[in-house]
TrEMBL record:
It comes from the Bacteria. One of its GO terms (molecular function) is transmembrane transporter activity. Belongs to the drug/metabolite transporter (DMT) superfamily. Small multidrug resistance (SMR) (TC 2.A.7.1) family. Its main location: membrane. It is found in: Cell membrane. The chain crosses the membrane at residues 29-47, 59-78, 84-103. Pfam families: Multi_Drug_Res. One of its GO terms (cellular component) is plasma membrane. InterPro entries: EmrE-like, Small_drug/metabolite_transptr, Small_multidrug_res. Keywords: Cell membrane, Membrane, Transmembrane, Transmembrane helix, Transport. The lineage of its organism: Bacteria, Bacillati, Actinomycetota, Actinomycetes, Kitasatosporales. This is Ligand-binding protein SH3. It is a multi-pass membrane protein.
Length: 106
């Protein structure tokens, strides 16, 4: 159940960060409200995750997968370029999360 909550926390964080892009510096009401709501939901779900998943593992997955997802959204939907360095960075984040989970983190 902890990892399901963590997936929800990641989805909420990714949605909030994407909405922030459209908030125009918090000058547009609805994207700004979505940003705030998304982060509130994300942190609430992350807090619930910590009941069953260690903080180091949960935070590493939350931050790493969220970062990789936002970078991918930027490339696919927001016109950000894909460079070799960016692709390598995303790949390293994904590999790091996998290694953390397979390496027996508690």
């Amino acid at each position: 159940m902890g990892y399901l909550l963590l997936a929800g926390a990641i989805a909420a964080e990714v949605g909030a960060t994407t909405a922030m892009k459209y908030s125009d510096g918090f000058s547009r009401l609805w994207p700004s409200l979505l940003t705030v709501a998304g982060y509130v939901v994300s942190f609430a779900l992350l807090a619930q995750t910590l009941r069953t998943v260690s903080i180091g593992t949960a935070y590493a997955i939350w931050a790493g997968v969220g970062t990789a997802a936002i970078a991918t959204i930027g490339i696919l939907f927001l016109g950000e370029g894909l460079t070799a360095a960016r692709a390598a960075g995303i790949a390293l984040i994904i590999v790091g999360v996998v290694v953390l989970n397979l390496g027996g983190a508690h």
